[in-house]
Amino acid sequence: MTVKITKCNLEDLHILREISIETFNDTFSNQNSPENMKAYLDSAFTSKQLEMELANRFSQFYFIWCDEEVAGYLKVNVHDAQSEKMGDEYLEIERIYIRNKFQRKGLGKYLIDKAIEIAKEQRKSNIWLGVWEKNENAISFYKNIGFAQTGAHSFYMGDEEQIDIIMTKPLI
Questions:
Q1: What CATH number should be reported for the domain holding residue 69?
Q2: CA angle at residue 32 from 26 to 34, to 5 degrees?
Q3: Does residue 142 carry a catalytic annotation?
């Protein structure tokens, strides 16, 4: 298995949008109403929304490739791009999205390592992320690599309020 990570740019918008919708739908559609899924997908992953996110100087996107195919991506945020005010010493991992056929190949760990590398390059002392409280596989994965729950916040899926667990990992 050959793995590489490349930075995304505006020319990658189409595939970024495709992967976003595919992976979010695959992961969460069984646990949410079709109406709430549609409402979320129609706002979070429009071309215009993703273009704005790609243009934000405090956000970065990276594709992960597995055997010459885009398997998923990572989105990280610093400063004002973070979805919660965590401070300048933090880097947020906002998204780790891996396509179903590439699950369980260790690609999530590659992306976590990339986020840690970026955080260290930017002299951040902590990384954090939010994970849906019902996403037990992801929570277990993050705990196994050194993240701990440090809080929670609301996340809206359409008109339904859900809870994301905030998990943090110190880097020093």
A1: 3.40.630.30
A2: 85
A3: yes
